[in-house]
Write a structure and sequence with these properties.
Oligomer: single chain
Radius of gyration: 21 Å
Strand order of the largest sheet: 3-2-1-4-7-6-8-5
Number of helices: 15
Strand content: 5-15%
Distance between the termini: 45 Å
């Protein structure tokens, strides 16, 4: 029996260690003082173009363009790529004041194709940098000026703070929002303070035209942001994090949308991990320690799965295993508390932690969907964002 417990404890340590190591690194990093970055070569950035990929977003595209206009103190151009739309997205975007690129190609499914077309069009029309904002988002009033300032100071790539708001009164949605804040704010902040590349989160990121010439945007998976960031890391590039400029969107409120979005995110990450981990390990063994944190990130379990494994290991009657479980859970708790502190209604969010067991159970039920989404044959599917009577509680 002792051999059985040893094997269980060993397996749990092996599968959770990358997650705990990475969370320890970025969470501690977030408490460090703001770095004095080495002086970058200043640019004379004169033209930034906002690229908005949109697929059947007639309900939100007008609000998105208006938000960008309110943040625009530099008269930037806004290009909306109406990608395989069957609604009035293009007309609504044009009415709101954006330039519209209609892109109809049934074989080109997914946001990455729209981005690639938008980048090409923007650069051909004189853009020195492109800023990506999703069609279902709004931005803070300082976002465009902050991005232009960072690029003018010499950054080749920047990522703004990306918040995904949960539905008030919908505990599961609010817990998902908290988890996303940990991923989209605590992790990039820690990386930035440690001098690492902050990552690309798919929304609210900007790239210089020179960078796109050096590292073309050829990432076409369902998690194209993660894949392109790995290309940047491999090329020795760094993404800078702007924590006080915010792009916001709302999480889907339909049950179908929640399942689809989470399965696509985690399944896509699993697929990218399978293809990229050997390459990152080879680079690590040749002395490129800059790839260590991205490798830990790819190898790490989602926090919900890691916590479940740790709770199972807590029953193993071996002191070293129990000490590891205790320390690991403290790391996760610190990470979660940091995410709570960075968001609104801290006390309410703290109370929501009582529902974590139910949230973990919901996440575990998604494993078959995640595995299907990780298949090379998995197709891109638009998230259903609208609520149904059954999905809102």
């Amino acid at each position: 029996m002792s051999i059985f417990f040893f094997i269980v404890g060993f397996v749990v340590v092996v599968i959770t260690a990358p997650l705990i190591a990475q969370l320890s690194l970025v969470t501690i990093g977030g408490f460090l003082p703001k770095r004095k970055e080495r002086r970058l070569a200043r640019n004379t950035l004169t033209r930034l173009v906002v690229v908005v990929p949109a697929h059947n977003e007639e309900d939100s595209i007008g609000r998105c363009v208006q938000s960008l206009r309110a943040s625009d103190s530099e008269e930037v151009s806004i290009f909306v790529v109406a990608h395989n739309c069957t609604d009035s997205t293009a007309a609504t975007a044009k009415l709101a004041g954006a330039e519209v690129l209609v892109y109809d190609d049934p074989t080109a499914k997914g946001k990455a194709y729209a981005l690639r077309l938008g980048f090409t069009h923007a650069i051909q029309h004189g853009a020195e940098a492109v800023l990506v904002v999703d069609a279902d988002s709004t931005v803070s009033s300082n976002l465009i000026s902050s991005v232009m300032g960072a690029l003018a100071a010499g950054a080749e790539a920047v990522q703004c703070r990306y918040e995904m708001k949960g539905t008030p009164g919908h505990p599961k949605s609010e817990l998902v929002s908290l988890a996303v804040r940990g991923f989209n704010f605590v992790r990039p902040l820690g990386r930035q303070r440690l001098g690492l590349s902050a990552g690309i989160l798919g929304n609210g990121f900007a790239l210089s035209a020179d960078l796109l010439s050096t590292v073309p945007y050829d990432a076409l998976s369902v998690v194209e942001d993660l894949e392109y960031h790995l290309h940047l890391i491999s090329a020795g590039k760094r993404v800078f994090f702007i924590d006080d400029a915010v792009v916001s969107s709302e999480l889907p409120t339909s049950q179908k949308g929640e399942i689809s979005q989470h399965s696509r995110w985690q399944g896509g990450r699993l697929r990218v991990a399978r293809s990229w981990m050997p390459r990152l390990l080879r680079e690590l063994f040749t002395g490129r320690f800059a790839v260590l944190e991205p490798a830990l990130d790819l190898a790490g379990l989602p926090i919900a799965f890691g916590m479940t494994a740790l709770f199972i290991a807590a029953w193993v009657p071996l002191l070293p295993v129990r000490l590891y479980v205790l320390l690991s859970l403290l790391v996760i708790l610190t990470h979660v508390l940091r995410a709570i502190w960075a968001g609104p209604q801290c006390l309410r969010t703290l109370r929501l932690l009582a529902l974590v067991p139910f949230y973990l159970f919901w996440k575990l039920r998604l494993i078959p969907n995640v595995l299907r989404a990780s298949s090379a044959k998995a197709a891109w599917v638009r998230t259903d964002r609208k609520a149904t009577a059954r999905s809102v509680s």
